[in-house]
Design a protein that fits this description.
Layout: H1 7-19, H2 23-26, E1 30-38, E2 47-49, H3 51-64, E3 67-78, E4 84-95, E5 101-113, E6 116-124, H4 126-132, H5 136-143
Parallel strand pairs: 1-6
Antiparallel strand pairs: 1-2, 3-4, 4-5, 5-6
Length: 146
């Protein structure tokens, strides 16, 4: 029987996969009925349910993401709940279209059961990515219903 990964180890695999751009592999870290909430997402879905939906989302990111992300300053804190870790980290972001480089702050609260992510609340600096992509005016117009 394969060894079950701890919540800390699962997060480490997740962040390493993102940093290496291996998005198509990431869905396998999630339970079939996983729920991911991207709390500060300004324009896209804030809740994704199920591994199949996550697989589609990761495939879209793999095919169209204009950024390379390098994790840095990673701190993982264990909690009094053995299934939950809180990870604080930065991404060094290189925007492939604009050439800009910058840092974006992140926090993730993961619940991992039997070596798979069952829930995640993600607090990413989405606005920094939107600004770097030059899409802030479109976002504002969309939020205003124009």
């Amino acid at each position: 029987m394969p060894e079950t990964l701890s919540p800390r180890e699962v997060f480490q695999r997740l962040i390493e996969g993102i940093g290496a751009g291996r998005y198509t592999e990431l869905a396998e870290l999630y339970a079939e009925d996983a729920v991911v909430e991207t709390v500060f997402e300004p324009a896209g879905p804030r809740r994704i349910e199920g591994r199949a939906a996550l697989r589609e989302r990761f495939a879209l990111v793999a095919a169209s993401s204009p950024v390379e992300l390098t994790p840095a300053n990673v701190v993982v804190r264990e909690t009094d709940d053995a299934e939950v870790v809180v990870a604080e980290f930065d991404y060094y972001v290189h925007h492939l279209s604009t050439g800009q480089t910058f840092e974006a702050a992140n926090i993730q609260v993961l619940r991992v059961r039997d070596g798979l992510i069952v829930s995640s609340r993600d607090y990413h600096d989405h606005l920094a990515l939107i600004v770097a992509d030059g899409k802030l005016p479109q976002l504002v117009a969309a939020l205003e219903g124009k």
